[in-house]
Structure formats: C-alpha cells, structure tokens
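Good morning,

Attaching, inline, the backbone tokens for the sequence recovery test we're adding to the shared suite. The designed sequence is right after.
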C-alpha cells in the first residue's frame, strides 16, 4: 500500500462527512493514518480544529476524542490555533481542550 502525503490525508479529513446513518469510522481511519504515517506538525492544527468547528457538539461517538488525545500527545504549542478556532466557532471539544490546557499550565507553574 502506497503511503499518502500528509496534505492528502489532511484534505480528506477537511472534507470528511459522516454517513447519513452517523458512521464516523472513515474519520477514525483518516486520523489513524495521519498519526501513524506522518509527523504531525503545526500545519495540521487548523484542519484538525476545523473538525471541531464543523461538528461543535461532538456527535462522533468518541471519534473526535482521537483529535484531542493526538494533539495533546505532541509537543506542539497549540494554544493560539485552538483559541483562533474557538473564536470562529465554539465547540465542545475545543472548550474541553482549552480547559485542560489552562489547568495543566496552572499546575506547571
């Protein structure tokens, strides 16, 4: 199987829509592909946060938590892009991430 470029995976994530039946497995597969085959960097953040903006109430049956855990497992400074995303459209998981980030920052001081 040919490994795809990061921008191809991100484009598919950006265009993802769950099936009419509410099947999110396609996004789950895309996120797995992104985390396992590429070096996630700052360029990925806007696309990943746009998923939260498009689905602000997280109806993904837990799939979008993969974005939360994946980003939090990196050493990326994601606070600014997260705040920008929340300014465009507040989202449940975006707010959770910001709260967790602020809590972690406060405890690290």
């Amino acid at each position: 199987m040919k490994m795809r470029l990061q921008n191809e995976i991100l484009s598919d994530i950006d265009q993802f829509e769950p099936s009419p039946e509410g099947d999110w497995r396609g996004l789950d597969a895309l996120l797995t592909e992104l985390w396992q085959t590429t070096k996630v960097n700052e360029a990925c953040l806007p696309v990943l946060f746009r998923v939260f903006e498009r689905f602000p109430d997280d109806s993904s049956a837990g799939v979008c938590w993969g974005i939360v855990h994946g980003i939090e497992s990196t050493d990326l400074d994601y606070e600014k892009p997260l705040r920008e995303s929340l300014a465009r459209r507040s989202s449940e998981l975006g707010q959770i991430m910001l709260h967790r980030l602020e809590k972690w920052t406060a405890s690290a001081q």
